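re the bet — no i am not wrong, look at it urself. input seq straight from the record:
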Amino acid sequence: MTHTHGDRPEGDLRPGPAGDGPPPGTTALPAPRGLRSEDGTGHVLLDWEPVEGALGYLVHRSHSADGPFVPLDHRGGDVLAVPHPPYADTQVEAGHGYWYTVASWSDTGPGPLAPAAVRGCARARGIGPGEVTVSVDAAAAPSELPGVWNRMIGAEHFSLLAGDEAGPGGADIAAEYAEALGIVRDEIGVRTVRAHGTFLPENVSVRGDGSFDFTGLDEVYDRLLATGLKPVVELSFMPGELAADPQATVFHYRGVISVPADWDRWGDLCRELTVHLRERYGADEVAGWEFEVWNEANLDVFWTGTQADYHRLYEVAVRAVKGVDARIRVGGPGSAAAQWVGALLEFCREHEVPVDFVSTHTYGNAPLDFRPRTRSFAQVTGRPEPEILWTEWGVTPTHFHRVNDSVFAAPFVLRGMKSALASTDALAHWVASDHFEEQGRPPKLFHGGFGLLTVGNLRKPRFWALFLLSRLAGGRVPAHVTGDGAEALVEALATRAKDASVLDVLVWNGTLDQTKTDGSAALERTAVVRVTGLAAGASYDVSVCRVDEAHSSIRSVWNDLGGGDWPDEQQWAKLRAADRLSEQALPRTTADADGTVTLTVDLPMPGIRALRLTRS
C-alpha cells in the first residue's frame, strides 16, 4: 500500500508539530483551564474552556498522574489537534484509569500543557448501549445553515474529461467522470470543482515563439462548464519549458514541481492565462472564479523550492492575475496539514500583497479554526478578512485505504462539516470520483479510493452523509445532545421549513478513532429525540433514513454478492438496484398538549439517522 498525505505519494509525510513558526511578536498560547473528564461507556469524555486565539487543541494522555503524557493519535494520518472541545477518547479499556492534559494549538504549534492541578482522571465504563437525548426547539427562529459542504469539491485532473480510452473495469473514464460531477452537482448541490494540473502539458504548451497555447485547457474547461459547474483555477504544475528542473515530477502523470527558471515568465503565464480565460468565457464569469496558487508547496514532493520561493511564486502570480482583473479572487498557500497559513498572511501584510482567501488541507480530523489569524490580519491591515477555504479534506490522506469505502467515514463527514459551519467558508471533500490516477488507476471496485462515488458511480456511505446534509429543509434550529458521549460521539443538526411544514433532525454517532473503523459495540447508543415547540395536537408523518453497515452501504452489498475485483453484468445490475438511500416510514405521530413529539431510534457506531417530520 502506498501511504500519502492527501494526494501525496511516498511515505508518512505528516509534518512535525512546529507548524508555521511564530509570527513576529507572538508567544505560545496558555494552556486551557477548567479541564473536566467524565466516565463514559466505551470512552472518556473531556471538556475544557476555550482559549482566545487558539486554532485548536492537542489532547495528551497518560496511565499515571506523573506522566509521561503523550498526544492522543486517532490514526487519521494528519494533524492531531482538534478544533474545539468536547473530545471523546475511545482508545480506552473499561475499568482502566487515565490521566489527561491539553495544550492550545497556534501558529507556533502546541503550547504548554495544562498543569497538574487541572489534569483529569477518568475510567471508561463497559459495554452499553448508552443513551443520549436530542432536544430540538422547533419554535426557535431558524438561522442560516451555511453550505460549507457544497461550495467546492475536489476531483482528478480535468483532462480526464477529454479522454477516449477504456479504464478500470472497462469503464468509459470521460463519460463516468462527467457523470460523477453531474451527480454531486444535482444531489449534493456542489458549485465549484478543484483539480490539480491546470498547466499540465495536455492543457497548456509553449509554442516555438514563446507564446502559450491553451487549446487543451479550452477543451476540458468547455466540458466542465457544460456540466453547470465552475473551476477553481489551481495555478500548477510548472510547464516543463518554464521549469528550472523539468525532470522534477510527481504522480503517475508526472506533473512538474520545479521552481521557474525565469520568474518573469511565470508571471507571463499567469497573466496570459487570465486574459485568455476572460476572452473565452467572459470577464464577469471569470471574475467569479477562485485562483489558487500551487498545491502543498510545504511538501518536498510538490515543490523544489523553499517557503520564501513559494511566497515569491505567490506574489508574482497574484500581481499578474490582479493586474488583468482586480475582481478575481486569488489565494493560497494550498498547504498540507494546515501549515504556512500564518506565514503567508504575514508575508502579504509585510509586502502589501493581495490575498482574498487562505487555503489549506487536513485529513482524518475536523478542520482547525483559523479565524483568529484571518481576523487579526484584517484588523492590522484594514483590509477585508480573507475567506478560509479548506480545498482538500477527507477521512484519510492515504491512497487505497479501506476506511474510504467504510460506513465509519459517513458520520466522520458530518462531524467535520458541523464543526466547520462557524469557522470556514468551504470544506471541500477530496474527491468526487474514484476515477483517480495519481498513484495508478483503481485495481478493483472497492479499493479504498478517495471518491464519494465508485468507478461506475455507485454511492458510498460518505456520499449519503453529504446528501442528507443537502436534503435538510429550511433554516437551522437548536438541537442539543445530552447523555453518554453527547456532542463528542453523538451529534445532531436540525432544520425547520419556513412554513413549519417540515422538520428535519439529523443525528449521527462516530469517533475520530480509526482503530474503530469496523465499529464498536461499546459505542452503540439509543437516541431519544424530543422535539418541542410544535403545534399542540398537530399530526406528523415520520420517516427515517439510515446509514450503517446494514443500510445504505454499497460495499456491504458487494460483500454479500461474494466480493472480488470487478462485478460481472449480473452483479452490476444488483449493485445498481441497491444503490439507494435506505428510507422507511414510521408510524404517524401527534404532538401532545405541550407541543412535544418524542421518538426513539437505535444509533450504532458508526451510524446516521435522519428523521423527517412532515405535517399531515
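see?? Residues 1-25, 116-120 have pLDDT under 50 and may be disordered. told u. also The first strand starts at residue 36 and ends at 40. so pay up
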